[in-house]
C-alpha cells in the first residue's frame, strides 16, 4: 500500500517544487527546535531538480547536516557518484564508497550512529521498485557490526552484484532509512508506473519495505492515477 499522505501532481517539475517547499519547511522547524537540520539525500533527476531549487532559496545552510541514502563504489571524483549531487551546506558526510562496499559500510554506520533520528530522509524509486541501493532479490549482505544503541539490525548494507552498474554499492538499511522524523518519497516518470502500481497493490518491493505508512509520497500524473 502507498503511504496515506500521497499527492499526485501534474508534472515532475511540480513534484520538485513541492519537494523544495517541504524540505525547506522541515529545515526551518528542525533548526527552530534543535538548532540543526539533518537531511538524507537521494539520487535521481527529480531530487536533483529539487536540490537546485533549494540552492536558489534563502536557507540557513550552515545549520544543515547532509547525508546520503546510498553510494556507488566509484572514485571520489566520478560524476556518477551520488555525493556529486549535493547542496552547498557546510557539514556534509558522504559515504566513503571508494574504500569498497564492506569497509565503507562499516565506516558510514559509525558516522551516522549518533546522528539518528534524521530529520528528513528523501527517497526515490527505480523502475524495478528499488530504493537507495536496496534491490529486489539481492545477494546476501556481508555481515556488519550492529547499529547504534543496541539496534538489532545494522544501519548500513554492503551491496554486491547490483543489477545496475556499478555492481558494488553501499546503502543505508531499512532500519536507518526509517530512523527519521519524516520521510519524503519522490517518484516521477512513466517508466515507473508499473512498479508504483505494484507497490499500491501490496507487492513486496524494497520501496514498500523502506517507506513508512506516515511518509509523504509525491508523484506525477504520468506515473500514477490513484484509484478511487
Describe the structure concisely for a colleague.
Helices cover 28% and strands 21% of the residues.
Can you offer a commentary on this structure?
This protein has 228 residues and is α/β, with parallel strands linked by helices. It has a single domain (5-220), classed as Rossmann fold. The chain has helices at 12-34, 45-55, 101-112, 174-178, 193-200, 206-210, and strands spanning 5-9, 37-41, 64-68, 70-72, 91-92, 118-123, 156-159, 169-172, 180-187, 216-220. The longest helix has 23 residues, at 12-34. The radius of gyration is 16 Å and the shape is globular. The chain starts with a strand and ends in an 8-residue tail after the last strand.
CATH fold label: Rossmann fold
Number of domains: 1
* Low-confidence blocks of residues: 146-151
| Strand arrangement, major sheet | 1-10-9-6-2-3-5
Topology:
Blueprint: E1 5-9, H1 12-34, E2 37-41, H2 45-55, E3 64-68, E4 70-72, E5 91-92, H3 101-112, E6 118-123, E7 156-159, E8 169-172, H4 174-178, E9 180-187, H5 193-200, H6 206-210, E10 216-220
Tags for this entry?
228 residues; alpha/beta; Rossmann fold; three-stranded antiparallel β-sheet; 10 strands; globular
Amino acid at each position: 500500500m502507498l503511504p496515506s499522505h500521497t499527492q499526485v501532481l501534474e508534472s515532475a517539475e511540480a513534484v520538485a517544487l513541492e519537494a523544495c517547499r517541504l524540505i525547506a519547511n522541515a529545515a526551518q522547524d528542525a533548526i527552530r527546535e534543535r538548532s540543526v537540520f539533518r537531511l538524507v539525500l537521494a539520487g535521481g533527476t527529480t531530487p536533483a531538480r529539487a536540490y537546485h531549487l533549494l540552492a536558489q532559496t534563502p536557507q540557513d545552510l550552515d545549520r544543515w547536516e547532509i547525508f546520503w541514502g546510498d553510494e556507488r563504489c566509484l572514485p571520489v571524483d566520478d560524476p556518477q557518484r551520488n555525493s556529486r549531487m549535493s547542496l552547498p551546506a557546510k557539514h556534509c558526510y558522504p559515504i566513503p564508497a571508494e574504500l569498497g562496499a564492506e569497509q565503507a559500510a562499516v565506516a558510514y554506520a559509525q558516522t551516522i550512529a549518533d546522528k539518528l533520528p534524521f530529520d528528513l530522509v528523501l527517497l526515490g524509486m527505480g523502475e524495478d521498485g528499488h530504493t537507495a541501493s536496496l534491490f529486489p532479490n539481492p545477494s546476501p549482505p556481508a555481515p556488519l557490526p550492529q547499529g547504534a544503541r543496541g539496534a538489532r539490525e545494522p544501519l548500513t548494507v554492503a551491496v554486491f552484484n547490483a543489477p545496475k552498474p556499478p555492481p558494488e554499492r553501499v546503502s543505508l538499511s531499512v532500519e536507518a532509512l526509517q530512523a527519521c522524523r519524516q520521510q519524503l518519497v519522490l517518484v516521477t516518470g512513466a517508466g515507473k508506473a508499473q512498479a508504483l502500481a505494484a507497490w499500491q497493490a501490496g507487492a513486496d518491493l524494497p520501496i514498500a519495505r523502506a517507506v513508512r505508512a506516515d511518509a509523504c509520497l509525491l508523484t506525477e500524473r504520468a506515473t500514477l492515477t490513484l484509484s478511487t
